[in-house]
Specification:
DNA repair, nucleotide-binding, binds magnesium ion, RecG_dom3_C, binds adenosine-5'-diphosphate, 755 residues, Rossmann fold, helicase, Helicase_C-like, 6-stranded parallel β-sheet
Length: 755
């Protein structure tokens, strides 16, 4: 040990094999830089005990607490003893249990303070730390920890079983004692302009601050680096894709678009008209359009997209529309054909002279049908091609692809959009229009969609009906559930239709079908659903099981459909829709539902996006707390699409006062998608939003918050734009180029492979 050490040096020579291996296997940290970028999650202040009431079940935590009392008892059913140590923050307490370790009684003396680390569990309403590790700060203890603790702020690291926070702190200290301070990648000019700390100082202060001001300065600098790296990447992408040539599609008088406009049964809203003009101008340009169209569910995005596609068809090219699922692709194809009428009957008897064809192309189509569709696409007979993302990945050959429309895809990331841009030919890019119904907070627009121009449809077409939303709290008011089924019967009696949405498909517990498990809570339930496999007995499994807060598996489509058919909805025509049905069945069910031949559709989130059956007026979402905020908002947008008002019932067993319940109350209280998007952002881990490529463990965003750091992001965006304007390849900014490389490299390659 001892030589000066650079950031990309391995940890082993510095820390020894044992610590290096532990850091690598528990946290994936293998270089000096990795370790220094493993920032403390928070800091314990000298003299202040950790707030125990704020701990979350299932989290691995480190708490600073005081021993309150210790008791020993024999195990009831087997030999051995349990030492129960009650620790406290002065207000709340936590039990630590040690099996057959009675000797610990001698050091865990009442009133002694220490750090305790372990996973939080709940047992009979009482929080516990299971198998905790601890480090006492008084008595016969590790002097290094005590010294560290004598500092004003004690870093608390994200830790793992077997690698407590204080061990990480010790490793960091060892590294900081001998490291070779890295040179600062940020030019002095920028550092001064934004009053930022230097990188070596920032790294030192984040781990070993001498007070809160040092923490603040370090955080500000590290956030800035992250924001700038992201924004530089995006600015480069914008520059690069904007500079690529695209084929112009000027508007043509007397073409299919004009014919369509003449047949349109309604007037476009002002928003549709304005956005339409922007798009028309860009489609006519010689560089590719890269535009995001944001508009609430039902705001009429599809018409806007179709008009764009027709302009491209008028120019003799093709437009592809991508949907996230085959069900949606099929539905899009159907509704585009309907809207177009005889304008979609190209080459058929009775088709308009101007007509084109809409081809549907999905993986599970019968071979003959697929072959015909492929032919139509290759020959150019189909001006519009609808499919899933496989359409782009499968290298389907187009006659001349001019525009790609991506519908309703929150999971369609920056990388996939990049892949699209090479699909019109070697050196031309297609124009790209991405549509989303999820309102996008400004920070997200600047990051996740930072390579796109954003337009929005803010008004709803006239004649839209309101949607009202209520929470049905099954735990407190079981009778309300009966009332909910009653409401569905009433709607059906009045000639309307209903959705019942469940989180799981059924038959196989591993099939938790919450597509967008976007809260920790949901992921947790998925896990619990799996672990409870053995305990589940088929039917409703409604009794909440076992002692330690284990929950029953989420309700399943197949089971709920059967129960409803036998019980509360007996006599109604019930259909079932989920991702595991063969494509033909899915299509048949959707068709039947759209035709009014099915009264109640019991489904997973496959109905989340785009499904448009205006006669459906009520939706019951079962186990609603298992869905994310945005998802609930999307789901309820499926009702109230016709002239009758819509009703959405959020059925949940979550008790009043819990975070889950508050989330549902929030969804019920507002239809303001923007407000909900903010709430969602607050609840999601930010990595989920940025996509894995940009939240990678090693190089991603650790410090930057999309919720709180709008100012930093905006400044960094502007700065990045300026830098890239004058130095697109960053050849004169080597430090910045390295930052960008660090952000995008390996993780991105990995991500591209996965999708
Ligand atoms: P989105 O895709 O934004 O959720 P859609 O494009 O599916 O919304 O439109 C929802 C419904 O509203 C469709 O039935 C569509 O025909 C209708 N619609 C679209 N624009 C208008 C308009 N300007 N006036 C009246 N109805 C419209
Ligand atoms: Mg739509």
């Amino acid at each position: 040990m001892g030589a000066v050490t650079a950031l990309d040096d391995p940890l082993e020579p510095v820390l020894g094999a044992k610590s290096a291996t532990a850091l690598e296997s528990a946290l994936g940290l293998s270089t000096v830089g990795d370790l220094l970028r493993h920032y403390p999650r928070r800091y314990a202040e000298r003299g202040e005990l950790t707030d125990i009431a704020g701990l979350e079940v299932d989290e691995h935590v480190t708490v600073l607490a005081k021993v309150q009392r210790v008791s020993k008892r024999r195990m009831r059913n087997r030999p051995g003893s349990i030492l129960e140590v009650r620790i406290t923050d002065g207000k709340h307490d936590l039990t630590c249990a040690f099996f057959n370790q009675a000797w610990r009684e001698r050091e865990l003396l009442p009133e002694r303070r220490g750090l305790f680390a372990g996973k939080v569990t709940a047992f009979r309403g009482q929080l516990q730390l299971s198998h905790p590790e601890y480090q006492l700060l008084e008595g016969d203890v590790d002097q290094a920890v005590v010294e560290e603790f004598a500092a004003a702020l004690l870093p608390v690291y994200p830790s793992a079983q077997g690698l407590p926070s204080w061990s990480i702190a010790r490793c960091v200290r060892q590294v900081l004692d001998i490291w070779d301070e890295p040179s600062d990648p940020l030019p002095d000019e920028l550092r001064q302009r934004f009053s930022l700390a230097g990188l070596p100082d920032a790294l030192r202060w984040i781990h070993r601050p001498d007070g809160w001001p040092a923490v603040q300065a370090a955080r500000q600098r590290l956030k800035w680096d992250e924001a700038l790296a992201v924004q530089l990447t995006l600015a480069q992408r914008r520059k690069l894709s904007g500079a690529r040539p695209a084929r112009p599609n000027p508007r043509r008088a007397g073409g299919i678009l004009d014919a369509f406009d003449q047949r349109l049964p309604f007037a476009l809203t002002d928003g549709q008209r304005a956005v339409g003009e922007d798009i028309a101008a860009e489609l006519a340009g010689e560089h590719p359009m890269n535009r995001l169209l944001q508009g609430e569910v039902g705001s009429g995005k599809t018409v806007v997209a179709l008009r764009a596609m027709l302009q491209v068809v008028d120019a003799g090219r093709q437009a592809a529309m991508l949907a996230p699922t085959e069900v949606l692709a099929a539905q899009h194809a159907r509704s585009l054909r309907e809207m177009l009428g005889d304008l979609a009957q190209g080459g058929e008897l009775g088709g308009s002279e101007l007509a084109t064809r809409v081809a549907l192309l999905t993986g599970s189509m019968p071979a003959a049908q697929r072959k015909q569709a492929l032919l139509d696409v290759a020959s150019g007979a189909a001006g519009i091609v609808v499919g899933t993302h496989a359409l782009i990945q499968d290298r389907v050959s187009f006659a001349e692809l001019g525009l790609v429309v991506v519908d309703e895809q929150h999971r369609f990331g920056v990388e996939q959009r990049d892949a699209l841009r090479t699909r019109a030919g070697e050196d031309v890019s297609p124009h790209v229009l991405v549509m989303t119904a999820t309102p996008i907070p400004r920070t997200v627009a600047m990051t996740v969609y930072g390579d796109l121009e954003v337009s929005a449809l803010r008004e709803m077409p006239a004649g839209r009906s309101p949607i009202s939303t209520s929470v049905v709290p099954v735990a407190e008011k079981p009778a309300w559930l009966d009332r909910a089924w009653q409401r569905i019967r009433e709607e059906v009696a009045a000639g309307h239709q209903a959705y019942v949405v469940c989180p799981r498909i059924g038959d196989d517990d591993s099939d938790v079908d919450v597509a967008d498990a976007d809260t920790d809570d949901t992921a947790g339930s998925a896990r619990r659903g799996k672990s409870a496999k053995g305990a589940k007995s088929g039917k409703k499994a409604a009794k909440s099981s076992e002692s330690d807060g284990d929950r029953r598996p989420p309700l399943a489509v197949t089971e709920v459909a059967a129960l409803l058919a036998e019980g509360p909805l007996a006599g109604l025509r019930i259909g079932v829709l989920h991702g595991r049905l063969p494509a033909d069945d899915k299509d048949a069910v959707m068709r039947a539902f759209a035709a009014g031949e099915v009264d109640v559709l019991v489904a997973t989130t496959v109905v989340e996006v785009g499904v448009n059956v205006p006669n459906a007026t009520v939706m019951a979402i079962m186990d609603a707390e298992r869905f994310g905020v945005s998802q609930l908002h999307q789901l309820r947008g499926r009702v109230g699409r016709g002239s009758a008002p819509g009703l959405c019932l959020l059925v949940s067993e979550a008790p009043a006062g819990t975070a889950s319940r508050e989330r549902l109350d929030a969804v019920a209280s507002t239809l303001d998608g923007f407000e909900l998007a903010r709430l969602d952002l607050e609840l999601r881990r930010e990595g989920d939003i940025l996509g894995e490529a940009q939240s990678g463990r090693k190089s991603g965003l650790k410090m930057l918050s999309l919720l709180r750091d709008e100012d930093v992001i905006a400044e960094a965006r502007q700065t990045a734009q300026q830098v890239v304007e004058s130095d697109p390849e960053l050849t004169r900014h080597q430090g910045l180029a390295a930052m960008v490389a660090e952000l995008v490299d390996e993780d991105r390659a990995e991500y591209l492979e996965k999708t």
